[in-house]
Structures are given as C-alpha cells and as structure tokens.
Design brief:
With about 140 residues, this protein is an alpha+beta fold. It has two domains: about 55 residues, no CATH class; about 45 residues, no CATH class. Strands 1-2 form a two-stranded antiparallel ribbon. Strand 1 and strand 2 form a beta hairpin. Helix 2 crosses helix 3. It is elongated and about 85 Å long. About 5% of the residues have low confidence.
C-alpha cells in the first residue's frame, strides 16, 4: 500500500508546488466532493515486484601495494546486477484511478467557470493608462 501511495504523493507535491492558491482551493473542494461520491475500496491484489540482485561474474579484480619489503594484495569479486521478479500481495484502493480522474475533471471545470482557464490563474489587472499633462507651448 505504501509503495503505491509514495509516487502519488510525490506527483501531487510536484503539481501543488507550481499551482496557484486558487487551483489548490478548487482541488481541495473537488477532492472533498469526489471522495464522498467515490469512496476508497481497499482490496488485496497479487502483483509482481522487480528487484535487483548482485551476482558474481566469476572474475576477480586484484590490486597490489608495496609496503617496504612486503606486498599487500587485495582482491574483490566482480559482480553484475540481475533483475528478479517475485509475487507480492499489495493492498490497493481500486477506486483511486476513477476518483482521481473525476477530481481532475472537476478542478478543470471549476477553474474554467471561475477564472476562464483550467489553471485557475486569475486574470491580471491591466495597468492603468497614465495620462500626462500636455504642455502647451506659447508661440
């Protein structure tokens, strides 16, 4: 369960870092609404997990150092990374994809309705036209 949540939290954090306060407000409102409409539904699911394993190649790297009249030799096995797969039982929110789609659509719709754009960026006020007094020259 935690393995599935961490990437989601990371991507949400990245999204929220660039989001306007108005977008975050719309996201909170939509999340509350759609979390009630599409509640969590936890289910245990068997999935495959890939993990790395260091395997010896059969070769050895040795280095020798001379210390006065003696030589010290240090050898280490050469390894390579192999990827293996194992079955893992995970608890997954089966409704998360559908709820996430609904929340994203809700945020876009809310932002478009309030601000006229899907990013909830308020329109910037136009700079006031500055009028300068016209100097009249005396002929």
């Amino acid at each position: 369960m935690i393995v599935k949540i961490i990437p989601s939290l990371f991507s949400c954090t990245l999204l929220l870092a660039c989001a306007t306060p108005e977008w975050r407000q719309a996201d909170r409102e939509c999340e509350i609404t759609w979390s009630a409409r599409i509640p969590t539904y936890w289910q245990d699911v068997w999935t495959n997990e890939t993990y790395p394993v260091e395997v010896p190649t059969g070769r050895t790297n040795c280095t020798s150092n001379r210390f006065g009249d003696s030589i010290n030799t240090n050898c280490q096995q050469v390894t390579r990374t192999e990827w293996r797969t194992r079955p893992v039982l995970r608890t997954i929110d089966m409704n998360a994809p559908q709820r996430g789609d609904a929340i994203r659509a809700c945020v876009v719709q809310t932002c478009n309705a309030r601000y006229g754009n899907p990013q909830c960026k308020p329109s910037r006020p136009r700079p006031e036209l500055t009028t300068r007094p016209v100097s009249q020259s005396n002929p």
